[in-house]
Amino acid sequence: MNGAETLLQTLLNNDVDVCFANPGTSEMQFVAALDRHPAMRGVLCLFEGVATGAADGYARMTGKPATTLLHLGPGLANGLANLHNARRARTPVVNIVGDHAHTHKELDSPLESDIDAAARIVSSWVRRPATPADVGPDTAAAVAAALCADVPGDPDPSRTGTSGAVSTLIVPADLSWSPGTAPALRRTQRALQTVSHHDIDITAALVTGPEPAALLIDGTGLSESGLKAAARIQKATGTLSFCPTWPARLRRGAGVPHIQPLGYRAEAVGRQLSGIKHLILVGAREPVASFAYPGRSGILTPPETTVHRLAPDSGFDVADALNRLADAVTPDLFAPLPVPDAPPRIVNEALRTKNWAQVIGALLPQEAIVVDESITEGMETLAPATANSPAHDVLGLVGLAIGQGLPVAVGAAIACPERPVVCLQADGSALYTISALWTQAREALNVTTVILNNRSYAILRAELDRVGAGQIGPAATALLDLGQPDIDFTTVATGLGVPATRARSTAELAELFSTALATPGPHLIEAILQPT
Amino acid sequence: MNGAETLLQTLLNNDVDVCFANPGTSEMQFVAALDRHPAMRGVLCLFEGVATGAADGYARMTGKPATTLLHLGPGLANGLANLHNARRARTPVVNIVGDHAHTHKELDSPLESDIDAAARIVSSWVRRPATPADVGPDTAAAVAAALCADVPGDPDPSRTGTSGAVSTLIVPADLSWSPGTAPALRRTQRALQTVSHHDIDITAALVTGPEPAALLIDGTGLSESGLKAAARIQKATGTLSFCPTWPARLRRGAGVPHIQPLGYRAEAVGRQLSGIKHLILVGAREPVASFAYPGRSGILTPPETTVHRLAPDSGFDVADALNRLADAVTPDLFAPLPVPDAPPRIVNEALRTKNWAQVIGALLPQEAIVVDESITEGMETLAPATANSPAHDVLGLVGLAIGQGLPVAVGAAIACPERPVVCLQADGSALYTISALWTQAREALNVTTVILNNRSYAILRAELDRVGAGQIGPAATALLDLGQPDIDFTTVATGLGVPATRARSTAELAELFSTALATPGPHLIEAILQPT
User: Thiamine pyrophosphate enzyme TPP-binding domain: which residues (chains A, B) (predicted)?
Assistant: First the structure.
């Protein structure tokens, strides 16, 4: 057994059994060891941003980390943007990054770079084993750090209260090929923290008091259990509930009380929170604008609203807190669920912002996993259109680094092979990590991708006005325009091994979406959207 | 004039007039300002790694930096791998990275990350202007830092002796939209350093002495002037010349003395340097292995060889040093050029490692720019096959972070619109930055890309053996195999707007390559290579 095998077996001992890999020479020992440890599933990704995004999607659905296998500093660098998203979503991810052998570092060979500095940008925990005997314990510690579990003898206060984190283990090549030591056993996983009775009582007084209150819920509060508790609280007290615009994971659809996402723009949030005197954060952060704009505050809570914290972040058991709060304010065990509207009759017309999501909502299968990187095209239309679809989970773009959707879909499909994955993907963002389609094809994943092709960075067109950039001319317009030439996503997907079709009308989208869902393996539908 | 315009006009005052951009909200003021400063050419890239690679290619051909325009930390992160390559190639690149407004930083909004830490990984100079009055001077300083020019009042010893570097200016959004101050004027560019007479004399004694000596040349020594001087030295003294395996820029072809690249693998270098008693580095670094292997030294210079330094790095005027050395050892002003062999008759057969480069070499047009990311397929075949082609420049993968080729071709074509660009691109690496094809199409660049499709990470298959990974099974094999499904690059390129064809034989490649070169705009040829 060499060091690479010690590492692999320790991962397996710690219930980490999927590796999204884009290896190089310094990681060849791990690659070779896969055949001797067949319980570890290696999934080849053709770009590191696919591997890191897939690990994020996998962990959001399983609650346990996958590992990535990345090649030196540049390989890690290519994966950083989706690790940023994982960090923001508090997803557990374990990165294994190969490094040169100790003796080789001083030669400053071509790929030498500061791996540790790159890792620290996104990781709550970074370590490089110093000796072969460290490989096992350090690997177990990496898993524990990703799970924010207690690591005996390794207290790290920065991990307190997070539900998951990115950890990075940097492994010099000589430790991989040196004789290994015994793999380490499983570390204890720390449970979510529990909100105190005192805090429940204080919040109960607020929501039953005379002044309008609202809950802003995140974390496990967006599970079916949490949302049902929120609905009980609303029925008993009139307290509204909101969630972040794009939460890491949200339960939605028939049988699940609908929760209103906060709008992406400050004006929308202002309308939503208008008149609310008490905003109670339940596992959520205080809402802030994604960007600053001249002369506007970035704090979205209205000035007359007082902010309270029931659970300071998603590291608390938010669903439990909501259920206890509901028990405190009402004896009713159930709130009436919204009566599903009859699905809107889909009129056959050209696809636009206002109608594409209705098609998806009408045809979404039971227990779908919806990966939402629809951005401009979905920010106001997707939630209402899918509120009464069969119950499903939605995975959102918490960290706003685009290029997450296709990789997260890979990871979610590997996590839940029995569930259909629907990836709603903006066009501009899709090209960042387009090779994820190839991995979907190789692994025969049941992912239906809908590219929302509006042929522009539409969100930036809106932003130009909002930052006060004034009148723009052809040079600026060209930098926001994805036409000239038009990207033919149908053809690109075909070249990467994914069957693809194009829809221009609601009827075409409905037919192609149904067919794709009924056919095993990945499919891509390019929805050509007309300007609104 | 706002701060963004101060920045743009300062760049123009400093002769920086091309911007490879993938902007977001925090960079909208720059985008809007482009129409008021039409001398700045904005080039939209659909992924930041394309923007940074294009800036590298542009500067290698012009000697002056382009600027990138990147969106916050994740945008910079996506560009890091090709900035690593630029750093290793000592290419001047100026990154402009937008950041949130000062007041917005403390809100820790979704895209917040440590931009400065990411920048420092690849940059010799990182600064964020503190006030509007700093924008002009700091922008001029960023250009000077990239050019390793003297910056009055800003001595930075770390820049000494480099010919170009990556500099990063991080611009908070509020400085872009605030009223600007006067743009700064041009800074002085520092000339390359000159080698001393004493060092020339010492080297002359070595190369005329009794023991076999060889030159390892890089930097401006790989220009026509430098290579002709090296040929004079060889004729007079028998001193051989070598260059790095993949130098940043190399002149090659008819009328240019051929220089032997060092092999990629240690064994090859050992053969090349066998019997050499004195290895003289002329602008080059001491040769080291790209990776460590169990039980082998990473230092490639044979133990019996003494290393000498004539010019310690490529920040010296290496061509001048070689010419003065040649003058010192021989009165001859010219060395006989190699008599071009008759071009090999191309037999029509299936494409393989051994014959594809001969087709390229036979048909390469005058003054081509050859972007070489052919890796395994070209490492032993390209140099001999093109030694007698019409004179051309070769741009290599100095930093070994794959995914450089297609973007560097974008930048080279924008730098030299009158010259044909030929991009020789390995298949595995191509997908990293495939959207560069779209930019080639939009800008109607004269780039002919040849994808060398061997359907594997071929170099890693060879490396598995070399790291002593032993027998491998199907799990490991799958992680190095780019088939299942085969990637159809012809189709992918078509979808991105680049006309594409496929060649399976030498005759097909010859015909398609000639046609592509004769037709304006970008083309892609997918060369399907049979196993050797």
Answer: 401-526
Percent of residues in chain A assigned helix, strand, coil, to nearest 5: 40, 20, 40
Check CB contact of A21 with chain B, cutoff 8 Å.
Answer: yes
pTM for the model:
0.97
Whether residue B461 lies within 8 A of chain A, CB to CB, comes out as no
Asked if the interface predicted TM-score (ipTM) of this complex is over 0.90, the answer is: yes
Are the CB atoms for A424 and A372 separated by under 8 Å? Answer: yes
**Which tokens in the block code for residue B43?**
């080039």
Token reading at B525: 């040829």
- Calpha distance A166→B24 (Å, rounded): 25
Cβ atoms of B479 and A21 within 8 Å: the answer is yes
A1 touches chain B (CB under 8 A): no
Whether A100 contacts A112, CB under 8 Å: yes
The CATH class that applies to domain A3-177 reads alpha beta
CB contact under 8 A, A497 and B475: no
Closest by CA to B247, choosing from B213, B282, B295, is B282
Interface probe, candidates B5, B18, B25, B71, chain A, greatest A C-beta count within 10 A: B25
Task: Assign domain A197-329 to a CATH class.
Answer: alpha beta
pLDDT in the model for residue A90 = 94
Phi, psi for residue B460 in degrees, rounded to 5? -75, -30
Q: Which residues on adjacent β-strands are paired with residue A216?
A: A242, A281
Distances in Å between the Cα of B469 and the Cα atoms of A37, A170, B18, B332 are: 14, 19, 47, 53
Q: Which of B426, B412, B494 is nearest to B455 (CA)?
A: B426
Query: Which chain A residue has its CA at the smallest distance from B481's CA?
Result: A44
Hey, of B28, B262, B459, B477, which one would you mutate to test binding to chain A, going by the most A CBs within 10 A of its CB? B28
- Chain B: residue whose CA lies nearest to A71: B401
B240/B233 Cα distance (integer angstroms): 8
How far apart, in Å, are the Cα atoms of B408 and each of B108, B191, B248, B415? 35, 25, 11, 10
Q: Which residues of A touch B111 (CB under 8 A)?
A: 84, 290, 399-401
**A3-177 and A197-329: identical CATH topology:** yes
A399 touches chain B (CB under 8 A): yes
In this complex, how many residue pairs, one in chain A and one in chain B, have their CB atoms less than 8 Å apart? 311
Is the CB of B484 inside 8 Å of chain A's CB atoms? yes
Please give the residue of chain B at the shortest CA–CA distance from A99: B291
In angstroms, the CA A236 to CA A336 distance is 11
Residue B300 DSSP class: -
Question: Element (H or E) spanning A451, and its range?
Answer: strand A447-453
CA distance A205 to A226: 19
For chain B, what are the domain ranges?
3-177, 197-329, 356-528
Q: Would you call B468 and A117 a contact, using CB atoms and an 8 Å cutoff? A: no
**Residue A526 CB contacts under 8 Å (≥ 6 apart), including other chains:** A451, A453, A488, A489, A490, A493, A500, A501, A502, A503
pLDDT confidence band for A470 (50 / 70 / 90): confident
Interface test with B, best of A12, A56, A104 (most B CBs within 10 A): A104
In angstroms, what separates the C-alpha of A156 from chain B's closest C-alpha? Answer: 20
- All residues of chain A having their beta carbon less than 8 Å from the beta carbon of residue B470 are 32
Q: Which CATH architecture has domain B356-528?
A: 3-Layer(aba) Sandwich (3.40)
Q: Measured in whole angstroms, how far is the alpha carbon of residue B499 from the centre of its chain?
A: 25
Taking only residues 171 to 190 of chain B, the set having a beta carbon closer than 8 angstroms to any beta carbon of chain A reads 173-174, 177
Mean pLDDT by 10 residues, chain B (532 residues): 96 97 92 94 98 98 96 98 97 97 94 97 96 96 86 47 85 94 79 90 97 97 96 96 97 95 94 97 95 92 96 87 97 78 82 96 97 94 94 97 98 98 96 98 98 86 78 87 94 98 98 97 97 80
